[in-house]
Amino acid sequence: MLNEVVVCKASLMTVTGAQNLLLGEVTCGSLLQQLQQIWDEVGESDEERDKMLLQLEQECLDVYKRKVDQASKSRSQLLQDLADSKSELSHLLSALGEESFAGVPDESTGTIKEQLAAIVPILKQLWKQKEERIREFVDVQSQIQKICGEIAGNLKTNEPLGKPIVDEDDLSLKKLDEFQSQLQELQKEKSDRLHKVLDFVSTVHDLCAVLGMDFFSIITEVHPSLNDSIGVQSKSISNDTLSRLAKTVLVLKEDKKQRLQKLQELTAQLSDLWNLMDTPMEERSLFDHVTCNMSASVDEVTVPGALALDLIEQAEVEVERLDQLKASKMKEIALKKQTELEEIYARAHIEIDSEAAQERIMALIDSGNVEPSELLADMDNQIVKAKEESLSRKEILEKVDKWMLACEEESWLEDYNRDENRYNSSRGAHLNLKRAEKARVLVNKIPALVDTLVAKTRAWEEERGLSFVYDGVPLLAMLDEYALLRQDREEEKRRMRDQKRFHEQLNTEQEAIFGARPSPNRPLGPKKVLGPRANGGASNGTPNRRLSLNANQNGSNGVRSSKDGKRDNNNRPTAPVNYVAIAKEDAESHVSGNDQSPASP
Q1: pLDDT tens for residues 84-118?
Q2: Between the CA of residue 415 and those of 114, 145, 265, 280, 398, what are the distances in Å?
Q3: What is the CATH number of domain 393-591?
Q4: What does the angle CA 442 – CA 446 – CA 450 come to, to the nearest 5 degrees?
């Protein structure tokens, strides 16, 4: 025990001596010497002294133990910090997608503090890199979130976006590339949608301009962001917006189609009314902006205001005004069309009761039981049918004209042949001679012409099941009568030739018995010279052939001349009879028992 105390004293003295040397202050050795002096002066026993020294030793051990414990704890903390740093380093490398990092110390080299000192800057660098990576993720994910919100339509204008949640356990470049690829696809989709929106907006603008509608009210009703005052990138591109824009375009196009159809119907009515009432071009030109799209298609109408409601209303008002004006002029218009119809029938040599037709039209208009447009449409149909009927009769009528002309020449030739002075060198004799030559050629063609005319007339009647009537007389009846009259004329000629030969023979015999004497058949007065005449002129007693209803000169519109075919005998010189006229009159008398006029159209 004493040795331990001595050792303790020696060590204490050594320590205190060292401290004394370092600090130059009170040391354990000097204090122990003072304690020895005090004990000597007091006279403490050795037991007390040993007891106090042991107590000092124990206190000294306790101090060492505390220091050792503190040092051990400090080492353990450093090891824990080192382990945490390594774990954090590993986690950061994993989160950043890095397999290794340059500058990481080896675990087998260096003290704990050296290892910690080497890891700390690496951790700081990785933390900074992690923060930058997080910002990149936040930026990309924010853009994705915004575009997705715009497409979904749940992103309100000027509403701040919430910060996206970033998975900090996976901040690798691969994951960032995935988000960036997704962002690029969304940006492309946004661009496509934005182009569609702008195309729709442009189409709506053009349609509204043509229809004269308020573009801003219509487009903002679809979505407020579609206003021109808002930037392009801020316009709504949601599915709902695109759907409503497409629906708006369809509605406007349908409206445009209906308005154009209505306007074209109105312009057609205007054109018909103008043509009906012979409206001057100056008055029509006032509606050029209305009629310019009469035959245009829907896509061709692009002029602003071309289909505005006020323009359509203007056309409706004009149509209504013209309808009222047309009603007041209906009688004039109807009579004009009736006159046109009568002229067509007259040129076709079809008889109608004009007076009855006009009276019926006036009665219908005055009664108000028929719409003016319906009456005019009915008359237009009658005119169309009359033109078709006239066209079907054209070929036969041309041959009838040739036949009548030939008959007139034949009648003139008869007069010419009976003129005994035709070969005298009188004035105009050579002209009559030339005409006679042409007339004989034409007369020789009459039989063939009549046969052709009969064949064509019968074919016409068989095709239509109707009788071909010429100025109220069946043409075949006229041709049959003409054939009979021609036959009678030939027999009359033969009889006259026989009678002439008989008289000549008788005169010869009388001259042989009693001597020559003047012939009773030859007048002793001055000879008559036959001058040239117009075809069918009244100078030879041949009645004019019938023309159309408007060609007669009796002053009655649409009423045919007398059917007796006779002229005033007081003014008629003695001449051969026109057999065509006689045949026609006889055919008329043949069918006059019924005395029925064709129904008025």
Answers
A1: 888 888 888 888 877 666 555 555 567 888 888 88
A2: 159, 117, 66, 56, 26
A3: 1.20.58.1520
A4: 150
